[in-house]
Amino acid sequence: MHMFLKLSFLQNIMREIKQIKIKKDMKISELVNDMNHIGFGARKIGKASNILKDMINDKDCKTFLGVAGAMVPGGMKEIIIDMLDEKVADVFVTTGANLTHDLIEALGEKHYQLEEQVENANDIELRDKNIDRIYDVLLKNDVYKKLEDFFENIYPNLPKKMNIREFLWEIGKNIEDKKSILRICYEKKIPIFCPGIADSGIGLMIWGRLVKKENIEKLNVDVFDDLKEILDLAWTCKKAGVIYVGGGLPKNFIQQAMQFSNKEGANYGIQITTDRPESGGSSGAPLVEGISWGKMEKDGKYVNVCCDATIALPLIYGAIKR
């Protein structure tokens, strides 16, 4: 009897590792599916893709996507656009930096790779040449002149009282480039939130308009009204799924909405981060920690993927791409 119980216990906790084999013309979906059967970080990517499928297939689930960091300069813009356009994500929360860089590209400017080793980057020389550096990505500082011109043109016609979501839709309405996060959110009427919009190039552009004496009728953007909107979205959905690319403000804005929903928190969760939990910061906090707050449902499906998002996100999303 003792031996039977021991064998039963082992069968419940053990599953054979299936050595991964890379085949010619292998699909992303095949690779990520095979990752489910190996160890360490790759297994988490496989699990994340499975949870993403569950979110999409659950018709009662509304998915909240939070994107921090500099994902647009890092090359993730079109993946985010597809996730929004194909209704993989229903609600979008991000940083002012990502939206500024999205707008920069929508106005015809580009981001560039640093061709030499990052360790050899000469930031003094880059400064002399008016080039800004984001790790191994470069940006011409002159792009901000185009931002100035864009906001100078649209500012007079902006409604003078809005919340941040309405403000971002107004920007999207004035963008012609279809390959823009701001444009797709406006066109599809996707709720887009950026609580830290002032902390960005866009914020600086608006501030520049506000301080001009001729702008007598000042723009009034209500930051608290957005909180009401996202709380309403969390409260009224039957089920919720959360996807966090990085952490910070976008994650916390969604997490506190989950806490004040009419449920016990989100039913599904995927977090991609390189941060550690020991410092107590939100960005490194594992999703299950949210159970204690009522932000995550105690019987939900969650995974924490400790990986650079520019590696993990294309694999996780690419595996479910139809």
Give a brief rundown of this model.
The protein is an alpha/beta fold and 322 residues long. The protein has helices at residues 2-13, 28-35, 40-57, 77-85, 96-106, 123-128, 143-154, 164-173, 181-187, 201-210, 223-236, 248-259, 309-318; strands at 61-67, 91-94, 112-113, 131-134, 137-140, 161-163, 192-193, 220-222, 239-245, 266-273, 296-306.
Describe this structure in words.
The protein is of the alpha/beta class. The chain has one domain: Deoxyhypusine Synthase. The protein is 43% helix and 17% strand. The chain has 13 helices and eleven strands. Strands 7-2-1-9-10-11 form a six-stranded parallel beta sheet, sandwiched between helices. A three-stranded antiparallel beta sheet has the order 3-5-4. Helix 2 crosses helix 3 (40-57), helix 3 packs across helix 13 (309-318) and helix 11 crosses helix 12.
Count of the separate structural domains = 1
What structural class should be given to the helix and strand makeup?
alpha/beta
- The value of Rg in angstroms is 22 Å
Outline, from the CA principal axes? globular
Characteristics:
Deoxyhypusine Synthase; 13 helices; 322 residues; 3-stranded antiparallel β-sheet; 17% strand
